[in-house]
TrEMBL record:
Transmembrane segments: none annotated. GO terms for biological process: DNA-templated transcription initiation. Keywords: Plasmid, Sigma factor, Transcription, Transcription regulation. It comes from Comamonas antarctica. NCBIfam families: sigma70-ECF (TIGR02937). This is Sigma-70 family RNA polymerase sigma factor.
Length: 215
């Protein structure tokens, strides 16, 4: 974590050190299964810089994977992750254990920044509104899937997770195959053993339901 930027001095040395040296954060220790996220986050809120170091060592690699999966750009992922660590340090006082887990809160910070960055990129691309909507759906679903793969699904599912859980399992699978795994509708039909026309209808109706749920 030896990274320094004169522009981050307002956040203190711990925040300056928080930008991971990537790719892969190769020198990080193996994460601890019994790590106390709440204690570490509350220590950050109290100004204990060593607590941020412990959180970084525990979650940097997994958070990077989540952010990369959402923004789809390695350099942008590094920038987003740096901002996430600064936010975790400076906003730790806003964490409320009564409202959710500390690990879920940390992933929410990174996920939301990554989604905002992805949406900013899409807006700059000057694409048709319908295309932007599809890509935004894809980014939201990718965020859900990335957090799920990191093992923080129960803690940090977000609104999209709730809305996905409202879909019938086969329709949810079709949506994830299409927007997360990138399968064609024909490939999805073969995977779920359903007619192509049925799969097309499931995806279309499920997207309408998801957008209504998340609005």
């Amino acid at each position: 974590m030896a990274w320094h930027d004169p522009g981050c001095t307002a956040f203190g040395p711990a925040a300056c050190a928080a930008k991971p040296h990537l790719p892969g954060a190769p020198n990080l220790p193996v994460p601890c299964e019994d790590f106390n996220y709440e204690a570490a986050l509350l220590a950050c809120a109290a100004g204990e810089r060593a607590a941020l170091q412990r959180l970084y060592e525990q979650e940097a690699a997994r958070l990077l994977a989540v952010v990369r999966r959402i923004v789809r750009d390695g350099a942008l992922a590094e920038d987003v992750l740096h901002d996430a660590w600064v936010n975790i340090w400076t906003r730790a006082t806003s964490f409320d254990p009564a409202r959710g887990s500390a690990r879920g809160w940390i992933y929410s910070v990174a996920r939301n920044l990554a989604l905002n960055a992805r949406r900013d990129d899409l807006r700059e691309a000057d694409l048709p509104q319908e295309t932007l909507q599809v890509l935004d759906d894809q980014a939201s679903l990718a965020a859900w899937d990335a957090v799920n793969r990191a093992g923080a699904w129960a803690d940090s599912a977000g609104r999209v997770g709730h809305c996905l859980s409202e879909l019938e399992p086969v329709r949810r699978d079709c949506i994830l195959y299409a927007y997360v795994d990138g399968l064609t509708q024909k490939e999805i039909a073969a995977r779920v053993s359903a007619p192509l026309g049925t799969v097309k209808a499931w995806i279309q109706r499920s997207l309408v339901a998801l957008r209504a749920c998340m609005s």
